Amino acid sequence: MLPAVSTSAVQIESGVSRKNSTLICVPILGETIEKMVDDMNEAKTSGGDLVEIRLDSLKRFNPRKDLELLIRKCPLSTLFTYRPKWEGGEYEGDENSRRDALQLAMELGADYVDIELKGAHEFMTSIHGRKPENFKVIVSSHNYENTPSVEDLGNLVASIQATGADIVKIATTALDITDVARIFQLTVHSKVPVIAIHGIVSAPGQPTIKDLFNLYSFRQLGPDTKLFGVIGNPIGHSKSPLLYNEAFRSVGFNGVFVHLLVDDVAKFLQTYSTSDFGGFSCAIPYKEIAVKCCDEVDPVAKSIGAVNCIIRRPSDGKLFGYNIDYVGAISAIEDGLRVIGAGGAGRALAYGAKEKGARVVIANRNYARARKLADTVGGEALSLADVNNFHPENGMILANTTSVGMQPNIDETPISKESLKYYSLVFDAIYTPKMTRLLREAQESGVVIVTGVEMFIGQAYEQYERFTGLPAPKELFRKIMENLQ
């Protein structure tokens, strides 16, 4: 799988069907020339626009011979980087030799070279008067600790520009998702081409080129594309982007749905408050917190005390919160049930069950939370430790709405296998994995099971319709989820 970095600092060829001028740059970090050539061809096949050839990743390097071969064999535009240890790379040799290799790459026909700010003045002086017309120098700065303030970022850009750089590149480390907003401000207001990266090249978490094209339809994203996402922590396990993006594509809806790893929901919503952001799904552990972050809350969500869908109203930009979890859950379970969990999903499920006339018993690690929710819905409360011994009647229905058993902790379960014999049906709101330990042991005990996929699809129908204003493609949703299992 090839990682990819996007950059809008260079022009694209005409005639290509895309809604933006951003290029996909694929890092090439092979330890041998042969591996680099193979990776460059794969980058071309995968749809990349240019490659960043990391010379510092090579175990052996003969500058003239290897550079000539790499440039001749590369099917895409070439960017050469020779990153030293002191800037996060692998090169530990002489600075003059490193600078000479980048100059040689320029002379042999490279399209770009990347030189660090610390050594930029010397490099620019060394190529003065010899720089080819179409050749561009990228001057870069890498911060592996944080993302500076807008003011400090502006000063950094000015320092890089002062070297005579054709393109400014700044790579910083995001400690919080809201840090990215400062980079947005920088790129929007800059008068020179800027490459801005949160997280360093080839770092964990960057999307693969396959994901950019197939999952996020990167070529079709434009200034008027609406952004949607699922807010949570952790959130990488969520299948929502796979579901919604495929559905968006199927009807030509101009939107994209992404994972949003959020630490502070209120701060996130305040930071990203423009109309570009059309709506959000709320996942664990933010469904209850989200109620306080919305300008208005639907009466049902207010009664439940949890929100799992936030819509930015186009007319005034206000955030409107809904709870659709209970719709998905109760459509999967139409009988009396006992709920394990007093979080956002548990609240929705308990509310929906009570609305259907069920006897509801809430169990939670924190008895006070269980008691509070039980009082709200007119049910009973237990501590989670008492669940194994609670069986006043046979034929009960058990619903787990906690995160116990979710990836990566797939060996965990909220209740012993021995206790499952008292139930006629067991439902688990978790859908990653689809078959949790709880469901597997329930099935082995002869109990009917309902997977979290049913709840996920049920609530996704209504969220999709609120996001797009279009009827949900229900058959497509089910087909997508079946293919993911």
Would you mind describing this structure in some detail?
With 485 residues, the chain is an alpha/beta fold. Helix content is 36%, strand content 20%. It is built from 17 helices and 20 strands. It has an eight-stranded mixed beta sheet with strand order 1-2-3-4-5-6-7-8. A six-stranded mixed beta sheet has the order 10-9-11-13-14-12. α1 (33-46) runs parallel beside α2 (63-73), α8 crosses α17 (474-484) and α12 packs across α16 (452-468). The model is unreliable at 8-16, 200-204 and 334-342 (pLDDT under 50).
Short description:
This protein is an alpha/beta fold. 36% of the residues lie in helices and 20% in strands.
Which key features would you list for this structure?
alpha/beta; eight-stranded mixed sheet; six-stranded mixed sheet
Structural class: alpha/beta
Largest sheet: 8 strands, mixed
Beta content: 15-25%
Distance between the termini: 21 Å
Instruction: Give Rg in angstroms.
Output: 27 Å
Task: Provide the fold topology.
Elements: E1 5-7, E2 23-28, H1 33-46, E3 50-54, H2 63-73, E4 77-81, H3 95-107, E5 112-116, H4 117-126, E6 136-142, H5 150-161, E7 167-172, H6 180-189, E8 194-198, H7 209-215, E9 226-232, H8 240-251, E10 255-261, H9 265-271, E11 277-282, H10 289-293, E12 296-297, H11 299-304, E13 309-312, E14 319-322, H12 325-332, E15 338-340, H13 344-355, E16 361-364, H14 367-377, E17 380-383, E18 396-400, E19 423-428, H15 437-444, E20 448-450, H16 452-468, H17 474-484
Helix pairs in contact: 1-2, 8-17, 12-13, 12-16, 16-17
